[in-house]
Amino acid sequence: MKLLEDRILKDGDILGEELLKVDKFLTHQVDCQLMQEIGRVFAEVYAEAGITKVVTIEASGIAPALYTAQALKVPMIFAKKHKNMTMTEGILTAEVFSFTKQVTSTVSIVSKFLSSSDRVLIIDDFLANGQAAKGLVEIIKQAGADVVGVGIVIEKSFQPGRKLLEELGLEVTSLVRIKKFENDQLIFMEADA
Ligand code: 5GP
Q1: Would you say 101 is a known binding-site residue?
Q2: Ligand 1 pocket, 128 CB below 6 A?
Q3: Binding residues for xanthine, per the UniProt record (predicted)?
Q4: Less packed terminus of the chain by CB within 10 Å, N or C?
Q5: Whether the CB of 66 sits within 6 Å of ligand 1
C-alpha cells in the first residue's frame, strides 16, 4: 500500500535494530482518514471470504480493526490485556509475550462474542514475532471459530512472525512489508495489498 509506505517514510522513526515508532498516525495519535483507507483495502481483500467478525488486541490494533469491520459491516472485538470486574461471564484466554513490553500477559475475550459459526479476520498494527496473532488464534480456536486470515498493517519481514503464522496454515495479508533497516533507512519489499 503505497500511501502507507509514503506515510511511514514521512512520519516513522526507527528505534534501534528492530523497532519502528509510528505514534504520529497509528499507535498514539491516529490518522482516521488513513485508517479508513486501510480498512477499505483489507475489506476489499476479504470481501468474498464470508467474514463474520474482526478480532484484534488492545490497544493499537483497534483503530485499523475498527475501520476494517466497518467496511465489512461486521462487529469488531478486541482482546483485553487486563481482566476487569465487569467480565463476569466465561472468558477465553491465551498467554501472549509482548515484543514491545517484554512481558507475558493473559489476553482474553468474553466467550459469548465468538461461536463455532464465526469466520474471523484477525487485524493487528504490527507483525514481529507473531506472538500476539498466535494468541488471538488460540482464543478464536477455543470458541470453535475459523480464522480466515490475518491482516497486518506493518510487517517487519526480518522477524519470524509471518513464517510462524504460515506454518499454522494461516494466510497473512500485510499492507507494508519492511525487509530491513539499513543505515537508518527503511528497505521495503513487495507487500500483499
Ligand atoms: P509480535 O506479537 O508479532 O511479536 O508483535 C506484535 C505486537 O507488538 C503488535 O501488536 C505491536 O503492538 C507490537 N510491536 C511489534 N513490533 C513493533 C514495532 O516495531 N513498533 C511498534 N510500535 N509496535 C510493535
Answers
A1: no
A2: yes
A3: 20, 27, 156
A4: C
A5: no
Mutate which of 27, 99, 152 for ligand 1 pocket (most atoms within 8 A of beta carbon): 99
Q: Is 181 in the pocket of ligand 1 (CB under 6 A)?
A: no
Per-residue pLDDT of 111-167, as tens digits, reads 999 999 999 999 999 999 999 999 999 999 999 999 999 999 999 999 999 999 999
Ligand 1 atom nearest 96 alpha carbon: 2
**pTM (two decimals):** 0.97
Which atom number of ligand 1 is nearest to the Cα of residue 19? 19
